Amino acid sequence: MREDEAVTSATDPRPRPADNPDNGTDGAGAATAVRLIATDLDGTLLRDDKSVSERTVAALAAAEAAGIEVFFVTGRPARWMGVVSDHVHGHGLAICANGAAVVDLHASGELIEVRPLERSDALATVTALRAAAPGTSFAVELTTGIHYEPDYPPFQFDPAASIGTAEELLHAQAPGLDAPVIKLLAHHPTMTPDDFLDLARTAVGTHGSVTRSSPTALLEISGPGVSKASTLARCCAERGILPEEVVAFGDMPNDIEMLAWAGRSYAMGNAHPAVLAVASGRTAPNEEDGVAAIIEQILAEQQ
């Protein structure tokens, strides 16, 4: 599907918790059968140690056996999907990098679709954030790996990474750096995460979609209009699945659009306040298998 092809809007408002009397873990009460489960990973499906509990593994398998498709929808790049690759059934697809990539986990993370951040927009974003928030450092996530500035914090080490200014890393003719850009990362050493997010959204404007999933002041910038929600909407449209047939789970600001788009949505008990405000329901924290609890409830409802 073309990026500009019409699909059901991924930003349509959905009932908020105050509008939905059945928004707890003990009774969503939706009459429409669930056909697809979309779940974030870190802070949602995964435990804090990045493991998948036995209960969650069993719930995912039971959902697939009941004919419900499961999509992992994450900010992680494809190369970090090994933690769940053994638990993918059926179609084997996952939405990565906040919607910038659809990957086939049955084929070792082969890229099925890429929605890139154009380099001109990435460069404009770098310029805007350097002016609005001095001290910001950047990393560039390509389809082939990550590259970063010297001052960018060592959140992860990649021996194949190139080091340079963002402007140098975004130069399309640089050796090994000509792959599509799927995400620009921006870190600020002193601002609070939410203040940095608000500032960046104003500064970046239409050059990109700005969000965050880290507890630190680390922002993730995708191409304009690219989000977990918009890519999930495309994948569902291709399958003839309506928003009201989707249940979504998340915990951080990069999940908000997806939770608002899905017919039923659950914020984890450990979720960011803005996520709790937008989801139509709430479940237990990730450490207590909140996703599995709702999947078990859904399967009991649809027997």
Structural descriptors:
globular, Hypothetical Protein, Haloacid Dehalogenase-like Hydrolase, Chain: A, domain 2, eight-stranded mixed sheet, Rossmann fold, alpha/beta, 303 residues, disordered N terminus, five-stranded antiparallel sheet
What can you see in these coordinates?
This protein is of the alpha/beta class and 303 residues long. The chain has two domains: 17-115 and 227-301, Rossmann fold; 119-222, 2-Layer Sandwich (Hypothetical Protein, Haloacid Dehalogenase-like Hydrolase, Chain: A, domain 2), CATH 3.30.1240.10. It has helices spanning 41-45, 54-65, 119-132, 166-169, 193-204, 228-239, 256-261, 273-278, 290-301; strands spanning 36-39, 69-73, 93-96, 101-104, 110-114, 137-142, 145-148, 181-187, 209-211, 218-222, 246-250, 264-267, 281-282. The strands form two sheets. An eight-stranded mixed β-sheet has the order 5-4-3-2-1-11-12-13. A five-stranded antiparallel β-sheet has the order 7-6-8-10-9, with helices on one face. A hairpin with a 4-residue loop joins strand 3 and strand 4. Helix 2 (54-65) packs parallel to helix 9 and helix 3 crosses helix 5 (193-204). The chain is globular, with a radius of gyration of 19 Å. It starts with 35 loop residues before the first strand and ends with a helix.
Low-confidence stretches: 1-30
Radius of gyration: 19 Å
- CATH topology annotation of the largest domain: Rossmann fold
Shape: globular
Classify the secondary structure makeup into a structural class: alpha/beta
DSSP summary, beta strand count: 13
Strand content: 15-25%
Number of individual domains:
2
Q: How do the helices and strands follow one another from N- to C-terminus?
A: EHHEEEEHEEHEHEEHEHEHEH
Which architecture of the largest domain per CATH?
3-Layer(aba) Sandwich
pLDDT averaged residue by residue? 88
- Biggest sheet details: 8 strands, mixed
Count of helical stretches: 9
Strand order within the widest sheet?
5-4-3-2-1-11-12-13
The CATH homologous superfamily name of the largest domain equals: HAD superfamily/HAD-like
Roughly how many Å apart are the termini?
A: 34 Å
Fraction in helix: 25-40%
Determine and state the CATH class of the largest domain.
Answer: Alpha Beta
